[in-house]
Amino acid sequence: MWFRVLGPPEIGVAGRLLPIRRRRERYLLGILALDANRAVSVHRLGELLWCGSPPENARRIVQSHVARLRSVLGAHESHRHGVTLETNGYGYVLTTDPDRVDAQRFQTLLARATASDLGVRAGLLRTALDLWREPLPPPPEEVLWWRIFGHLDELRATAYEDWIAAGLQLGDGDRLIPELARLVGIYPTRERLVEMHMIALEAAGRSADALAAYARAHAVLSGELGIEPGPRLRERQLAILRQTGRADSERVARVNGAAASTLGAPARPAPAPQRSRSSVAPAETPARRDTVRSATGDQPAITVTAVPGTDTPGTVGTSRAALARHWAGGEAGAFVDFAQTWHAAGQPQRAHALYTSALVLATIGHNRYEAARARIGLGHVCAAMNEPTQARQHWAHAIELYRALDLPDDHALHACLDLIPMVRTTDADGVPPVERS
């Protein structure tokens, strides 16, 4: 015979649930099971079962519930399993082996995990957590469960945090990211979970997602609780921003170094550029853009079949200026991505600088697709900085760039349709209403 309270209260024997149909009787048995082998007063039972407002005849109702429970237990020969429900002076006591109660086993496993080394601790915590049943946790409308067993959910959340922490120490961060996302969805205000989610995402090379996780936590904490994230969470965000900033600086240094190398080289005599369809043009569409980026997207991977300025169209060219144009066109997309990360992190000035760099690179590389993306980003940043006129100008330029692209699908059309209202829908002052604060 077993008792379950880590979820809706249940009692069963030999793989079958006992037929306890009244909800309050199931909760009464759950209370007694949680305090197995200890007497629980009728007064406390009444306070718990009626959420602090028991009726005047609560004692008589509890007595009736106990009588029916004894009948059910007797019908299933509970005494053979060492289970009895007895009166004890001022209340009742359920006598049973504590291991038959899932909540008792849960707390025993947590205590053992605390005293164990890392690998064993992770296993014990996972075993303890697996005792819980869906839905996790019970919905808020289950007021009775939360009043009686709510403290167990706090233990469960802490156990999840300890299990995740052990997993990160064991190097399982990548595998834990989906579980962390699920847990943060259940417990959005638990900053330790959010911090570990950010740590795992950053370790997986997903700094933008880590910053987005911080932004969501900030919105929840400030919106629902009226507080700012704690110092540990803020320090984690700053650490990621600094790391991203160093990566940005290194990338900018590579751009500047390549530009200096190219522009500082002596001009090589060459015929006038002969542009033809056989020449490789800088990437201008999403499909073409993929051809000039590496598989990871971290570095450009350029395949040149012809470069304007070479002697023979269709052969591999050696013009450093042409290669620089190709490289700049590919790098523009990376700068747009970095700018989006900073904008999402609430750093519009830094985002503006990166979008501007992206626009310069895209212009050098004749990459109209990335130039349009940079213009759109600049528009949003300017709108956020209360510069609606500049925002509208950037969006108008983006529309023109999209119209000039020969895209194989309706991507440009949809982009234009999204931007046109922001450019043309103005009030008497010429400011788009969406930009007014």
From TrEMBL:
Domain of life of the organism encoding this protein: Bacteria
Family annotation (CDD domains): BTAD (cd15831)
Sequence ranges assigned to domain OmpR/PhoB-type in this UniProt record: 15-85
Record's keyword annotation contains Transcription regulation: yes
Biological process terms in GO annotation: phosphorelay signal transduction system; regulation of DNA-templated transcription
Low complexity: compositionally biased ranges: 273-283, 303-313
Keyword annotations from UniProtKB, A to Z: DNA-binding, Transcription, Transcription regulation
GO molecular function, one term: DNA binding
Keyword Transcription regulation: yes
Stretch list, region Disordered: 258-313
Residue span, Bacterial transcriptional activator domain: 101-241
Entry's family note: Belongs to the AfsR/DnrI/RedD regulatory family.
Family matches, as PANTHER family: TRANSCRIPTIONAL REGULATOR REDD (PTHR35807:SF1), TRANSCRIPTIONAL REGULATOR REDD-RELATED (PTHR35807)
Name of this chain's protein: DNA-binding transcriptional activator of the SARP family
Lineage, broadest ranks: Bacteria, Bacillati, Actinomycetota, Actinomycetes, Micromonosporales
